[in-house]
Amino acid sequence: MQKRILRYTISFCLLLAFSVQAQTDTTKRKGLVRLNIDLLSPVYGYFSDAPAKRMGGEAMLEISKNDTLFYVLEGGFHKMDYTRDLFQTTSSGLFLRAGVNRNLMKYYDKKDKDIVYIGARVSTCTYQLGYPVFNNDSTYFGKGASNVVPSANYMAFWVEGVFGTRIEVVKNLFLGADLRGALMVYHTNQSAYKTLFVPGFGNPLNGASLWVNYSVGYKF
Amino acid sequence: MCNTSKAWNAQCIFYTVSSKSADSLITVDSIDVKGLSISAFLYDTALAKKSVALPLDISSDTSRYVFGSHSTFDTLTIAHQTEPFYISKACGYGYKQTLLSVSSTKHLIQSVVVKSTSIEKDAKENIKIYY
Questions:
Q1: Which of the 8 DSSP states describes residue A8?
Q2: Which chain A residues contact residue B38 at CB under 8 A?
């Protein structure tokens, strides 16, 4: 499912990006404040396959003086429960991203509010990593015996590149999709107990992550 | 599906103390080995054994075993360190184990010596047991 979402998003963004070049900018744009709510995180848990179950929410605030450069602040909460026969792990925490989006659109119609953008973020999160049960599968000294590993708090810092679009579907109401790639810069968990999910980032084991966001936004 | 081994056994080789100049390998004609306070046997009247492989308890810092031969019993105690290491999402964690010390009662066993502290997949000899 994730691959399909990713493929559709990339195709959609590329299509819009190419359509931008045919337009000419003849209007002076006004600034805006737009609040977007992530559509995927709250329902991701219903569609994600076991053993990983995700939930959370995310909000994105955009402020622009001229509809070209957007200052962006994003924040949210993510939680992932991962359960296998031999161990369980939970990551949950808050994340914050700050950055800018650069609108690539050149408008010929003053009423046109759609945007296609590239952007960058610096991001951080603080989260709790818990291993409520850490089963061993020793066949002699007792299968099912468990080590209880105390929960620990960690932080992570990463940078993101963003490519996306927002389309006005009714007056002041926007639907958005963006593709994000992130690189982990610093992660305080250097212990033997690996983090499988960093809130706001995803799986940190390879040091990089790629995902899509879908959102609905309202322009004030 | 996980097909990876997560912990390996301590390899114990039997020697005799009769030779002063060099270690001499011996074959124990009949041996019972089981964990202390555990009913299941690792070796139940096993015949002609030159070595035994002992799984270490990953939930504890010590593993204790009862060695029996011809109705004479010794208790072997292995102190060890267990550190988990991540394998994969499917397998979870494995265990890197290191021997710290080994001791034994001296009814039939005369002495025990740690030869190699690292419990690894291809370890050939971790503990020398002298009869």
A1: H
A2: 140-141
